[in-house]
UniProtKB/TrEMBL annotation:
The keyword Glycoprotein does not apply. This is Response regulator. Gene3D superfamilies: 3.40.50.2300. SUPFAM superfamilies: CheY-like (SSF52172). It comes from the Bacteria. The keyword Manganese does not apply. It comes from Geomonas paludis. Keywords: Phosphoprotein.
Amino acid sequence: MIECDERELWIMGLGERVERGAIVCSYLAEGGHRARTAKVSELSGCTPRAILLDLSPWSDDGWGVLLALKENPATREIPILPMYLSEIGQVGAVFPVAGFFTLPIDTAYMTRKLKQLGLTDESDDYDLQVMLVTRKGEEQVQHAITKLGFEVVNAYTAKEAVALGTIIHPYMMFCALMLPDQAAFELLERFRLYPQTRNIPFFVLLKGEMKDGERQAMSRSIEHLVRKTWLNRQEFLAYFKKSKE
């Protein structure tokens, strides 16, 4: 049995091909972080500091792992950083989402999570806008956000979200995983291009189940976001706070 170390970062979604996590582990080690590859079954005996999850076409059901972790109250608190690894484990892209929530929304959990992140502290003192980007609007999510003292601005496509977001500069964003014209990670990358929106907390809403075709489509949707050159160690570690250990 592997000794539990809750200070570790775990690389998951690799299945039996754990060698695909070697490059990421070496980058993290050089940055002063404890890291290793792991499987979902190991979470029953240990809780890592965070999970780095491969969602590329080469992953072993990374989307299924993501849903399973976020639907389970025992594991949904663990921060997850989605990434794209090549067939041999080179880092193609990292998607720094602020968090994930599953639908139908657990209002009490979402409220508690936003408060833990310090994102509700100023809602009573300022008129702050939150953007909700979904195909038809999510009334339950909208109601929960409004109860926290925020004004909700709805957008129904990624194109509309960019047009509105670059004008109003929302305080935070909630986006459905799949939109009519784009996927959530594509929209996240668009907002990261603009200085005024690149640091807006961006949450992704997951529906309770995804068909195999949808998972494949999502993997393909992030594939074209991968740069022609792989991220080097310095570029990859820019997504992490420097370890104090």
